[in-house]
Amino acid sequence: MSDFIIHVTIMSGLYALLALSLNLQAGLGGLMNFGQIALFACGTYGAAIAFHFDFGAVSGFVLAVLAAALLGWAFASVGRNLQADYWGIVTLALAEVIRIIATNEDWLTGGAQGIGGIPPLYAGLDGQTRQLVILATVLLLVLAAGLFCRHLIGGRYGLSIKIMREEPQLAASLGYDTIALKRQLMAVSSVLAAVSGFLFAHYVSFVGPEQIDSSETFLIWAMIVVGGLGNNAGAIVGAFLLQFTFAFIPFVKDWIGLPSEYVAAGRLLLTGGGLIAFILFRQSGIVPERVGGRRYV
Amino acid sequence: MIEVTEVRAGYGDGPDILNGISLTAEPGRIVTILGPNGCGKSTLLKCIAGFVRPRAGHIRMSGEAVTDVPTYLKVRNHRVGFVPQTDNVFASMTVAENIMLGGRLMERRDRERRFDTLLGQYPSLASKKNRRASALSGGERQLLSLARALISEPSILLLDEPSAGLSPRMMHDVFEAIADVRRREGPSILMVEQNAFEALHVSDSAYVLSFGSVAIEGAASDLLADPAMRSLYLGGDKH
């Protein structure tokens, strides 16, 4: 049971990094990115391609981070003058294009079969010790990412992003370059998603296109909406809450006596139902965004 | 100085809202753009500010071509101050923070000097400088928005319906404040307004738009005395 809890906690931590990344974009910057999973894919495929071509893990990490930052920058640049909802559709479409490329470019990505055998993290350690060290690494990274996001939101940069989100015309009239702000924010937040993907690839030792399905983006959205859009602690709370809830669905299924296919359905039901319930009844989420109360200038 | 020459503009694939408008606003003068709803007043101001890119024509500021220059560069390089019509203050920030934000590109010492000067000029803001902007009345918000635009000592000031939604008393105070800005600082002031009578009283000249074109233009005093103008835009002879 403890191995199971450690595994679920590690997965929650990896999703927390993804949720923090999306929270920077959507919660802080108001950027409705529905292609978040593509940024995660930069991390997973960065690790996998580096392994596939024998570049080494460090090169894989650099590849993952650079690819994600570049893709985030490109997301912000494509249709930069579009309204938020139309831009969201564009990001969803771009993420699907990337998934289709990953499915079809066998020479690079392993195609539909994916790339397996990626060296696990801390391969020199054995069994539960390795799991505990991975857990500590992931939790430390979540803490570091949370502090980084807090620093970003609390300072002048965070203020400029909030102004861009709330009043884009007013922001421009105060001399803010709103397009540059969007690009910077997307590039920086994408790195967090890439780190999550890189660790995920080395943790599960396999990367495939089914891991970057669009439904995963909406799972991350559900995490930040349930946790509290615009609040870093909320993003972490949402990631852990949903991951642990999903992990215990099979036990609930056995307890009620439902067939196995209900596990996937229960997961979808919780994701969609949680999103709808919180949007309808508690838009601010479990940990609402803090507004005001800070000296900005 | 602002020079607009034969500007045509619209939104998306839609028809032209502005059909070849030309105007000039010289330093130290207040120029008002008047006209009924939908005539293109705000679109013209957005074109000049850089929010809407003209489809044709030219815009110059202080002699430099700025037709396709985005808003933030006009603010940085041509010292343009812009006061939007609505949603023009940050409600969760204090009055002082709102004003200081307008001077974020200035040296700290200059910004603080201007801040003190502006608080001296606007006692109603000075007495509430540490209160949230959300606690201000409509007129005070408009003054706050004006003070935020003025802190950077703009050479061009663009005002989008500064009297919108204000009581007659507050409207009077806001127009007086705008007239004071001209006297003290001397920027080119271009103002879009619905309240023609009050706006013309503080303006030097005005352009009346109709269906995206200039229908009437001239000195504000001449327009106030023009019978056609009084009949169409100033509510007959009631003033």
In short:
Chain A is mainly α. Chain A has one domain. Chain A has helices at residues 2-28, 36-52, 57-77, 84-104, 106-109, 127-154, 156-166, 168-173, 178-204, 214-227, 232-247, 249-256, 262-281; strands at residues 115-116, 206-207.
Describe the overall structure.
The complex is a heterodimer of chains A (297) and B (239). Chain A contains 13 helices and two strands, in the order H-H-H-H-H-E-H-H-H-H-E-H-H-H-H. Chain A has 297 residues and is mainly alpha-helical. Chain A has one domain. A two-stranded antiparallel sheet of chain A has the order 1-2. The N and C termini of chain A lie far apart (51 Å). Chain B is α/β, with parallel strands linked by helices and 239 residues long. Chain B contains ten helices and ten strands. In chain B, helix 7 links the parallel strand 7 and strand 8. In chain B, helix 3 runs parallel beside helix 6 and helix 6 packs parallel to helix 7. Chain B is globular. Chain B starts with a strand and ends in a 6-residue tail after the last helix. The model of chain B has no long low-confidence stretch (mean pLDDT 91).
